[in-house]
Specification:
This is AB hydrolase-1 domain-containing protein. Helix content is about 45%, strand content about 5%. The chain has about 110 residues and is mainly alpha-helical.
Amino acid sequence: MFRGFQRAIDNDMWQARVDSIKPLLEEARIDSGKSEIDAEVVIKVWDKIAPIMASQFDAPYSVPPIAPRPLLLNGADDPRCPVLGLQEPASKAVEAYAEASSADRFKNCSDPS
């Protein structure tokens, strides 16, 4: 599953992901002295779990190098990985697959309509 961690932070769309690991985020919230979990707490936890997860390991950077191997992005309405978060990685993948002369090996089926 490809996730846009930085996009989730930038667009205030991290709540569903936080809910899946809430006890960890609650501890981080307490440690930071905050009254509620916010983007700053989320960033600190993600940086602890996997530094550079929201940069070099994020979907816009990790999807394109898969070219020229076959890749299918598939999804619909997932609160932890919204379709809008796949737009940038899919766009970069299209470019990477075209550059690798293998455009036929990439397919994006993430349109919810």
